[in-house]
Structures are given as C-alpha cells and as structure tokens.
Design goal:
Elements (H helix, E strand, L loop, with lengths): L2 H46 L4 E6 L5 E5 H12 L2 E2 L14 E7 L2 E9 L2 E3 L7 E2 L4 H20 L1
Antiparallel strand pairs: 1-2, 1-4, 3-7, 4-5, 5-6, 6-7
C-alpha cells in the first residue's frame, strides 16, 4: 500500500471516529437531560399530589376558573404522567403560555404551571413538558381560554 493510500485511510478512520464520538456524546447529553427533566417532573408531581383544587387563570385577563374534585385529580395525574418536550440542543420553543394553573390544598399553593394547549412549564425559564393524555388541554386550558374570549366578546 502506498503512503498516500495509508494517509487517506488513516484520515478516513479518524473522521469516522470523530463523527461516532460526536453522535455518542450527543446521545449521552440527551439522556442526561431526559433524566434531569424526569427528576424535575417527579419532584413537582410529589409537590402537587395532595391538591384538592386548581385555580386556572388566563394571564392577560381577569378570568379564573376553579377545578375541583375528580377533575382536579385527573389533572394532577396528567401532569405527573407528562413527558419532557425539550427542543433540540441549543434552541428554544417559541410558545406563549397563556394560562396559569395553581394547585392548591385548602388555601396553600402547592405549585403552579403555565400552559399552552398540551404543553406546560413548571418554571418559565426551563424546558416544557407535554401532556399526551389531552386532559390538561380539555379540563384546564380550553375552558379557561373559552371563558376569557367570551368575556372579551361581552366588552
């Protein structure tokens, strides 16, 4: 084998190794973020587990709805079953979270989330989660949004 061919093979193997290392590194990073998001959600789910009602508020209006009983329990369960909806590395979703849902036990606020349809954030500056059950949208987001728009129509 000539020296040129050996050099080309060596460069090709080095490039393949570098690409493989990048892919492996990306997989580890994604796995680490997934574990971090799972831990954040699990801690929040424990925090709101004893909520007996939810106060949902449309951010730019004066509309608030109270969700209690079985519906509140369904929403708590839907939040706890949600999955990370983290965007690709280095980017951010452009989502307007228009509904705030506060989870309460009596008068004690246990935690709150900001919602846009089925996506929600626990803390506004962190990556969102996705509720695949559709309950968050059906029980909290849509009724609150509908009430807000009905109130605006009446003005």
């Amino acid at each position: 084998m000539s020296n040129k061919l050996k050099l080309r093979v060596a460069l090709l193997l080095t490039a393949l190794f570098a690409v493989g290392l990048c892919i492996y590194s990306f997989s580890l990073t994604k796995l680490a973020w997934q574990e971090y998001d799972d831990a954040r959600l699990a801690a929040f789910a424990r925090q709101i587990d004893s909520a007996d009602h939810i106060v949902a508020t449309f951010k730019s209006g004066s509309v608030s709805l109270i969700i209690a009983g079985e519906d509140a329990k369904k929403v708590v369960r839907a939040v706890s079953l949600s999955k990370s909806h983290r965007p690709p590395s280095g980017s951010k979703w452009k989502i307007y979270y228009s509904v705030n849902a506060a989870f309460l036990r009596g008068t004690n606020v246990l935690g709150d989330i900001e919602i846009c349809s089925q996506a929600f954030v626990i803390y506004h500056d962190q990556s969102p989660f996705q509720d695949d059950t559709g309950l968050l949208k059906a029980i909290v987001y849509e009724p609150t949004s509908d009430a807000y728009f009905k109130e605006r129509e009446g003005k």
